[in-house]
Amino acid sequence: MDHKLLLKDIKNKKFEKMYFLHGEEAYFIDVLSDAIMENALEEHERDFNQTILYGKDTELLSLISELKAYPMMSERRLVVLKEAQDFRNLDGLEKYAEQPSDTTIFVICHKYKAFDARKKILKSFAKNGTVFKSDKVREYQLADWIQQYVKSTGFGINSKGSMLLAEFLGTDLGRIVKELEKLANLLPAGTTIDETHIELNIGISKDYNVFEFINAISARNTEKAFKIIQYFEYNPKAADLIVIISSLFKFFSQIMRIHFLPNKSREAVAQAIGVHPFVAGELLQAKNQYDPRKIAAAIELLHRFDLKSKGVGNASVSQAELLKELTYQILH
User: What is the torsion angle, in degrees rounded to the nearest 10, for the CA atoms of residue 196, residue 198, residue 203 and residue 207?
Assistant: First the structure.
């Protein structure tokens, strides 16, 4: 189930008796549980009818007692078990899940990993309530997700801006949303966010970042690559060598695959290697700069420098110097 459909029902006060929210992506679980807490009870009802428990500190018997308690001056109670991945006896709730209270909304928030779908308790929740699995947004979907989220808030964002956020912030949706909320508070409604807004307000340089460094390597632009390395040297928090090497490995692996694809149209490449069409277009241009032999040599270099970045066979050379040497060897 799409979390937006579930969220719509919650905001329309169409509640289930039970919600089992689980999965790797904590953001969607937080959005849904917060919406339930905001909409299930009126503010004056919460003191006596809302109970929030945490898995590590909760005993099974006390939880069941809360679930079976009657509401006071309200038509329902709300019980939320947060950090349920730390609760020692979820299976012990199986009997309750088979016959849940008609006057209690029970929410389980099981974060950072999916619950075992084979277990009977999950089947009972699905039968008598709602089970929502919160999957991570895949890396190649992240820029599109950012664009859709921004659009839903009444703003816009250009392709480079969404790619820059995706590259710098990774797949941590909670962090991405916080940064976008910061921008929303600073910019006029309806603004189309671009890389300049991101640089000025979030602190990600639009010109000196891993994304632009990969572009410089892609275009074999030695001058640009070394300018960015110099920026990294003076701003160590801007990029980590291990992250740069990982990004380079992904880049060279992708263009190696493109060399052997039968259909090299932008759309076919985007689908085959799982990237945004904008990225596919840039990778197709990069393919022309590196034949398979050069790519293989670059990947061999990356393996060697990955070990050096982790201290293997390298006792004293700084990250900046290693990156300079790696870049020189790739480009020459």
Answer: -50
